[in-house]
Amino acid sequence: MSESFSFPLRVVQLDLARQMETVDFIREFTDFAADNGFNALGLYLEGRVRTASFPWPSEEESYSPAAVREIVAHAARRGVEVIPVVSTLGHAAMFLQYPELAGLAETRPPFTGRFGPGGPKVFCPSLPGTHDFLRRYLAEIGELFPSHYFHVGCDETWDLRRCDLCRERGSEAEIFRDHLLAVHEIVTGTMGKRAIFWDDMLFQYSEIFGQLPRDMIPACWQYQGRVDPPRGHFLHREALDLPGAYERLGFEYLVCPADSTLENAESFTAYAARHRPLGGWLTAWEKHEITMMPSFPLLGAVGRLWASGCAPGSLEPLRETVTSFFGIEDAVFFEAVRALCRSGHYRDRSSTPASFLTARGNNSDYAREGLTALLLAVLPPYLEKVRPSSRIALEEMLLSLESEQVAGELLRVYPRIFCGGGAEPVAELDILTARIESLFARRRALHGRVRAGLSLDAVDALYETYLADLRSLLSRAATHGFLRAGFCLPDQYAAATTRLAVLYEGEAAAVPVAQGVFKSMLNFDAYYSRLFAIERDRVPREVIVETWGYGEQGFTWFEAHNAHGRFVPGSVEAEAGRVSHPEWILRDDWKAVFAGEPDARISFFDEAAATAIHRFRVTLVPAGAAAHADHLPASCA
Fold this sequence. Notes:
The chain is of the alpha/beta class. It has helices at 23-35, 65-77, 93-96, 99-102, 128-144, 164-169, 172-190, 242-249, 262-273, 296-308, 316-326, 331-343, 353-356, 365-378, 391-418, 423-450, 457-479, 600-605, 607-611, and strands at residues 9-15, 40-44, 81-85, 149-151, 194-198, 217-221, 254-256, 279-282, 358-360, 480-488, 495-504, 511-516, 527-535, 540-550, 553-562, 565-576, 579-580, 593-595, 614-622. The protein is globular and about 75 Å long.
């Protein structure tokens, strides 16, 4: 097919599970969707609607059947079909949190999840009670939504086959297939609707492709910057032409980009246009910390692209959306909004101490900071020029840009405080803290305008934690030194857990320093470093490194700084498991020691491989005493 293609079914999503919206807002969002080329609204609910079989959510945290009928009726008047999304396997925490359903969890005691302890997230498909409950609840939801389609979720079911009942039944792929067949029987066999499901787990269970009913509709979601071709969401991001495979097997399917960047949606649309998808489903997730308003220009552009059939990459869909939504035609304003949509800068970045103690190897933060500063210089005057009803979207875009700017400054200030930079970074942190407090107040007020009458607990929790972390940094830095760990992780979708411990002089046992899956997700850098707190007044003699899990983790360098000076690797010894080239840790370069099973697919399907420990030990010596120090300039030793 050509690069242009008008999608028959054009769905835009509201994530109501992570953040409720008012019925008034949902009506207004439906109007926006209809005006911008969409003919369907996907309501991601999980368990957000209370019914006779699911009566436990409070009125404040759920929608009544009457509210749903009001939403559906308004959408019908605008020619918009409303498709519900109910989690029937994974992402089931909203159901399983209630005692009455907790026994249906795959990780009910004594069973634990694939990635360790945590709250229950997945239904056990081997318990008869699971499908009994789903049969009742899906029927109740189906009666509220007259759509011919019903989305049954089934994404990210990482905790499948953890309990004894499931392990006795067969493989993960067989259990996943059987659950899809059971839900298909409910939705299609009993309710007379077509079942849509997220297809990400098919990358793990590709052997079941041909065993599914051909009237099921896979929803192929891809969120990377450029989609050509689609890639797996785990297990080394394997490339797989799913649209081509679905067509050969006789499936209709949906392509599902996200509102993360315009390039994601445009490139996936271009790829899909070479095939024949049933349509597109534009996802938008987790708007509890920001509202949907800043996403409107991107959403409108994708809706117009899908409806018009113009070639992806054309500026017209976005130009028309910006003019219609903001009510002005201005070349500079258009280019600024376009830059926001292409970069994703209208969304807040992670605001945790860990993110500010991570340095990226390619220095890509400088480019982000430059674009942020430019947009903050260009956009504020337009607050008085845009349509009053759309001003709030621009206000929140500017708040996110300010948050991005503060985050960039914290990236510089945090390490300097940890490294004993004196009074100057402390004063800078005080200024940044005041700016964050101001952002908090303005963000909270904006959310109150968009979500009048709804809880603002998520925003409060975000900023209260943010500010508490900042305030605790000074006392922590005053009483600790730091360990700088250099990492290499070419596959940012790996999930190898790392445990770091330090053995101090005169001690028999090492002291734990950190444990986690340490990634640099923002820009997918292969090389990055991270600071960890260590004891200030004790001499560090060894770093003990352990990994396990899914995929291997690379390490390029360790150095410790505290009151006794700077310590670097003096020698290294591999002690257990798979550790490649441990000697490479002795130089501060970009050769990496990799620890772990390199093939994540082996670990995924072999629990013994996933839990095996891979360990090496690095002896630390004063910087001037390192064996390789003689080869370094004096300023580096």
